[in-house]
Amino acid sequence: MAQATQIPSGAVNRDEGGMGYLTSLPRRVVTIYVPLFVFLFVLLFPFYWMAITAIKPNYELTDYKHFSPFWVVKPTLEHIRYLLFNTDYPAWLWNTMVITVAATIISVAVSVLAAYAIERMRFSGSRTVGLSIFLAYLVPPSILFIPLALMVFKLGLYDSKWALILTYPTFLIPFCTWLLMGYFRTIPFELEECALMDGASRWQILAKVILPLSVPGLISAGIFAFTLSWNEFIYALTFIQSSENKTVPVGVLTELVRSDVYEWGSLMAGALFGSLPVVILYSFFVDYYVSSMTGAVKE
Amino acid sequence: MNGTQQVALRRAPPPGGFARIMESRNILGLIFLLPAAAFLLVFLTYPLGLGIWLGFTDTSIGRPGFFIGLENYEDLWNDPVFWLSVFNTVLYTVVASVVKFALGLWLALILNEKLPFKAFFRAVILLPWVVPTVLSAIAFWWIYDAQFSIISYSLMKLGLITRPINFLGDPTLARASVIAANIWRGIPFVAITLLAGLQTISPSLYEAATLDGATGWQRFRHVTLPMLTPIIAVVMTFSVLFTFTDFQLIYVLTRGGPVNSTHLMATLSFQRAIPGGHLGEGAAIAVAMIPFLLAAILFSYFGMQRRRWQQGGRD
């Protein structure tokens, strides 16, 4: 693939073939592989840069004359050691994990009930409720954080995990409900009718027929909710004050940057490790993730 | 509950009071909806109303406010910084969305071709979208560093510039830089969702068009684009919505500086409300975003109408 870039671009003809077998290899190289690798390079370079900065000793970091910035001569774990033992980073990771898991479980559980009710019970007004859930998803946190801050303060939740566990579902529930509605719709009615004939109650149908069949949908909703709450920033920034209660994104940004000394190494290490849990989860469930993301706009 | 019901079924009389309630669609539906509705009413609908109310008061942190009518909005109307933030937000949204759409569509078309390791490429391309925005923004902060920027270094090595570029220090460059970072993060979302749309287009349409002598451009213009329009409408509405209300990227990279040139409405609202303490004024700025969002939602609503969609196609 490396020699792909060597092909002179003079032979470009803006006639890209829809049917692959009709186009010759050089043309494919120019119209497909070269742009693809440019895209890949641009999209992935920041991660490489993050990783390489995280293990670069400080004297190499700021000396571009003697060391090529693209490589690291003597890798060091100093930044990571500093991050783990001299800052609250482990606490941030733990907080983020607790908050994310709690918010995800609450949201998925609540959404399953709501989605089932809207999609399958067809009670009066269910379509209106479905539409308002969709509209709820479009209300952005940047509009809600000020009144929510006031509420969190009045409820005595300021600077506690509960402030985030209770507010994250506001953007998770609409999304999960919406996703699960789409999923439940693919389950044939006949299965439910059979269960009803056999004397099952609605609860039993949900627990023994619908849920086992919608495990993929539940996984999609779960990992998407996990990612969304792991990445959340503005609520965590507003509702949490003390360093030991912060989440990773807020902690890395507000606690690792002190005065004018930018600890780029530890900052990048912090960003890298803070991204890892989502990336690992994502890499195991790529297809679920993609299907939930595209399902949200398709369907 | 099960017991009653089983008995009821065996003897076949009409079910008793409790069982009947549990089978009534309306009541059971209500019970199932209750937790979600409670969450959303308490933590979404109520704060939304409270936010609008706060916009009409002079509430500050630690002091309950009084109703002051439209004073906040009058102040904002005469506030050049607010208008600058509106301009920035619109510029940021329009430029970033257009570029995201163009590049995202291009990437989607590339990925729609026959490729080896396609699943791998697709997975890797989504990474910028998956990783927490704040954390990737921190990486961009370092990439945009005034002294040690890797971009400046590369350009200097290539002999294109002689001095490092002050990416985040100059108003115009700062705007371009934050927009570029936003585009970087947004391309994967647009590309992957459009790719899903492209994959639903039947290849036979392209074959028919080719037999009729259509060129590549004509196939794109008259087959791909019309088939893709509904999904483009939805994807771009989301993209516009996320971009318009963006907060994290600006907060990390510039905090609205230099001289407010990158302040978006969301960051200005945060700055006035939380560090500044003027909750009322911050809320008023947030409320000022609502008309724009409504416009985007209406756009999406009509985009969706073109396709049998979520609510079964009758909405």
Decide which structural class fits the backbone of chain A.
mainly alpha
Helix content of chain A: over 70%
In whole angstroms, how far apart are the ends of chain B?
Answer: 37 Å
Report the strand count of chain A. 2
Shape of chain A: globular
**Mean pLDDT across every amino acid position of chain A:** 83
**Secondary structure tally: strands of chain B:** 0
What is the quaternary state of this protein? Answer: heterodimer
Structural class of chain B: mainly alpha
Are there runs of chain A of 5+ residues with pLDDT below 50, and where?
Answer: 1-18
Helix content of chain B: over 70%
**Which H/E pattern describes the elements of chain B?**
HHHHHHHHHHHHHHH
For the biggest sheet of chain B, the summary is:
none
Biggest interface, chains and residues, is: A-B, 109 and 115 residues
Main sheet specs of chain A: 2 strands, antiparallel
Give Rg of chain A in angstroms.
25 Å
Describe the protein.
- The complex is a heterodimer of chains A (299) and B (315).
- Chain A has 299 residues and is mainly α.
- Chain A is built from 15 helices and 2 strands.
- Chain A has helices at residues 25-54, 58-61, 78-86, 89-121, 126-137, 141-154, 161-167, 169-184, 189-197, 202-213, 215-231, 234-239, 248-255, 264-284, 286-297, and strands at residues 257-258, 261-262.
- In chain A, a hairpin with a 2-residue loop joins β1 and β2.
- Helices cover 72% and strands 0% of the residues of chain B.
- Chain B contains 15 helices and no strands.
- The model of chain B is unreliable at 1-13 and 308-315 (pLDDT under 50).
